[in-house]
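Whiteboard transcription, Tuesday session. T.W. wrote the structure tokens on the left side:
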């Protein structure tokens, strides 16, 4: 009877855990909200493409499985604390304190072993203590600028979200990531050039470039 009760409690806790992380699908990325992007992506959307970047990396020295796990866990606390951006005037220390408390609560709903693994992954990313964590941080930034470019395309406003690109300057290092960023930048330059060429003379591209309010990566290294 005791074993059955323990199993039921465990499943109830797992259900609560799944409901909590499900909230990530309804937490919008703050930077896009501040920039008045229509229908901004959720934190869950962001983490999914990061996980796909981890899965499709071609570097044979990379532990893909660990990268995928790190991508799926790194913003998990935002299901409760929300996506805290630099413009929210919350210190790094306070942000970390809130997220750490949330991760302890979330992982406390899980069985021994699994709770330690997930909390350990989050801590590894926070401290950037492994090559995989540092690569996934680059995926975090890459996903952000790729999304910025896509919003510019959808809005028909090439160059409007330049500040997001500026915030990633000199922060990409892995050869595969650098190549993808180069392709992205080339495509974006072409779009901006085409848009400039199509304008009537005497007009100029307006960009919103106040870096103080930009959605720089939620976890800075």
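and on the right, the sequence the group agreed on:
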């Amino acid at each position: 009877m005791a074993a059955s009760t323990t199993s039921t409690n465990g499943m109830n806790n797992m259900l609560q855990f799944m409901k909590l992380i499900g909230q990530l699908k309804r937490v919008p990325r703050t930077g896009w909200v501040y920039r008045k992007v229509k229908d901004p992506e959720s934190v869950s959307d962001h983490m999914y493409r990061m996980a796909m970047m981890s899965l499709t990396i071609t570097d044979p020295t990379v532990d893909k499985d660990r990268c995928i796990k790190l991508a799926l866990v790194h913003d998990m606390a935002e299901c409760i604390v929300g996506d805290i951006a630099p413009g929210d005037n919350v210190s790094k220390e306070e942000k970390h304190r809130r997220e750490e408390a949330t991760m302890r609560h979330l992982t406390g709903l899980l069985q021994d072993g699994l709770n330690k693994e997930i909390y350990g992954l989050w801590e590894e990313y926070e401290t950037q203590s492994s090559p995989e964590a540092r690569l996934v941080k680059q995926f975090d930034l890459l996903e952000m600028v790729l999304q910025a470019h896509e919003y510019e395309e959808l809005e028909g406003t090439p160059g409007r979200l330049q500040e997001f690109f500026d915030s990633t300057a000199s922060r990409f290092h892995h050869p595969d990531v650098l190549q993808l960023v180069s392709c992205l930048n080339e495509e974006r330059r072409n779009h901006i050039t085409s848009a400039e060429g199509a304008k009537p003379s005497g007009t100029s591209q307006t960009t919103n470039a106040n870096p103080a309010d930009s959605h720089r990566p939620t976890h800075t290294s």
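Someone added at the bottom: Residues 204-221 have pLDDT under 50 and may be disordered.
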